[in-house]
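ok so for the tutorial part 2 we go from a plain amino acid sequence to predicted structure tokens. step 1 is just haveing the sequence, like this:
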Amino acid sequence: MDEVNYSELLTQYYADDIDALSKYIQYFEARGGKDVASDYDGKQGKSDLRFPVFDSMLLRFTDEASKTKLMDPNYMYGYRSAHISTVKQESDAIIHSQPKDLDLLKAILSRYVLEGRYKGSRWIEGAERKVFLNILVQLRDMKKEAIIH
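step 2 — the prediction. this is what the tokens look like for a chain of 149 residues:
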């Protein structure tokens, strides 16, 4: 079985996508995971039906991320194979990830970006739990490290 060259993946195959999404690190750092959405409660006064109105930068990020090679529509397989079933396990997996965990980072990012299309709270969770920020930082740092070596 061929060994995967993660340095090559990070510096060539995913390089443009990582660079494109890295510009959002500052946004997620500045927001601190807060104020990425507000409730719309109607123009004519209060409404019983409330839904989130997302910050335009968060919408740009999720739209751009959804078009990258970093998206994995089979993201739940990544969760199952890594035995991730809690928020803490997910957070630990992101923070302690190494280049060999690239597929897992893709799976986690994909879950939050793709599920957010039909479950709006997922994008808010991704920002509030710093999932987006931590994955982007990890990918950027892994790519930099791969370039050095």
